[in-house]
């Protein structure tokens, strides 16, 4: 999309804002080396709200890099790879932390049987991820103390009982949750979100994007609704390969153009993408990758009408999500729908009834 106010210029292609930083260069190089699938997949380790030593411990576990006897033999640091606890099987990471019958008592007292995957998942990374997702901080502190107990027993011959492991793991989890200001991840509080009814005379434009990954086959879509959630019209389009921020901006642009063309002059544009909302409301950056498109959106909003931008959680934006997914599967670059697609009806009714959806 071209906007005459945005002149051609040289920009840094390693970042969407077109401005070079050493961080963006580093990420760009990582991308070039095609290690993104690995490096980005470890982001969840760095993002955990736990002490760094535990983050590092989790990372080592996921790489089978803690010095179990199997690893020590590989590195010629030990003669036997057998488990020092039971001496029945090689001491792989999962054996050490879960499968050794010496640690069964720890997990039994914790109630691991309540989790169907617990004894069945044999991929160490998936096992840890499921543990963190379903059990939370306590899972991490238990495996930490199981490992510490193992090391104490192997190195200093000090026996740490099941009760002591559970006690220290519990204390540590409690301290972590207090320090980091979060309750244990295992205690998930469900938040309920619904489509928000606007004040009278305001037409609501919900927009969304859909992309397969962040650079996959992409589409966008949205819909206009009246005060009580009544369908007015919708739109969707397919773009090909692009990223989600580009699609979100396209959705905003086409949604606003549609609202204007239908004669609505009090419009509330709702998006679940904070970044896109910041771009269309912020100071113009001519180096930005989609500067022309943003300038076009600003041109549309500066017409003689009243447009407000509102952030919505994605659970309150499900109808637009449906339209965007429809767009990603379409052949045409833009299509306007005067009647609602059949598959959207139940979501429209749910929104009009004020139905809340759980936010996980
Ligand atoms: Zn064992």
From TrEMBL:
One matching Pfam family: RVT_3
PROSITE patterns recorded: RNASE_H_1
Domain RNase H type-1, residue spans: 199-329
GO molecular function: nucleic acid binding; RNA-DNA hybrid ribonuclease activity
Top-level taxon of origin: Eukaryota
Gene3D superfamilies referenced in this protein's UniProt entry, alphabetically: Ribonuclease H-like superfamily/Ribonuclease H
CDD domains membership: RNase_H_like
InterPro entries to which the protein is assigned, alphabetical: RNase_H-like, RNase_H-like_dom_plant, RNaseH-like_sf, RNaseH_domain, RNaseH_sf, RVT-Znf
Name assigned to this protein: RNase H type-1 domain-containing protein
């Amino acid at each position: 999309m071209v906007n005459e106010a945005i002149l051609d210029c040289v920009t840094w292609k390693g970042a969407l804002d077109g401005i070079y930083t050493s961080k963006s260069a580093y990420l760009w190089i990582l991308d070039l080396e095609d290690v993104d699938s690995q490096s980005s997949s470890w982001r969840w380790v760095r993002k955990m709200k736990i002490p760094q030593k535990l983050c590092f411990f989790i990372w080592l576990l996921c790489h089978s890099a803690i010095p179990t006897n199997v690893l020590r033999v590989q590195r010629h640091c030990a003669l036997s790879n057998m488990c020092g606890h039971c001496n029945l099987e090689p001491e792989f990471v999962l054996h050490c932390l879960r499968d050794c019958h010496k640690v069964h008592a720890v997990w039994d007292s914790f109630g691991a049987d309540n989790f169907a995957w617990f004894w069945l998942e044999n991929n160490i990374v998936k096992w840890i991820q499921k543990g963190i997702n379903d059990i939370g901080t306590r899972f991490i502190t238990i495996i930490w103390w199981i490992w510490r107990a193992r090391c104490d027993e192997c190195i200093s011959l000090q026996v740490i009982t099941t009760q002591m492991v559970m006690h220290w793991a519990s204390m540590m989890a409690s301290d972590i949750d207090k320090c980091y200001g979060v309750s244990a991840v295992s205690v998930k509080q469900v938040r309920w979100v619904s489509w928000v009814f606007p004040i009278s005379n305001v037409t609501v434009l919900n927009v969304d994007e859909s992309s397969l990954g962040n650079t996959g086959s992409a589409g966008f879509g949205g819909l206009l609704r009246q005060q009580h959630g009544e369908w007015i019209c919708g739109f969707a389009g397919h773009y090909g390969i692009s990223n989600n921020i580009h699609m979100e901006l396209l959705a905003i642009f086409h949604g606003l153009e549609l609202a204007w063309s239908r004669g609505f002059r009090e419009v509330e544009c709702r998006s679940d993408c904070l970044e896109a909302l910041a771009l269309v409301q912020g100071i113009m950056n001519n180096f930005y990758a989609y500067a022309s498109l943003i300038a076009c959106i600003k041109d549309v909003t500066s017409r003689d009408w009243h447009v407000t931008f509102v952030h919505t959680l994605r659970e309150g934006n499900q109808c637009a999500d449906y339209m965007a997914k429809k767009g990603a599967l379409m052949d045409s670059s833009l299509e306007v729908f005067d009647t609602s697609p059949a598959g959207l009806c139940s979501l429209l009714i749910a929104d009009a009834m004020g139905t809340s959806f759980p936010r996980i």
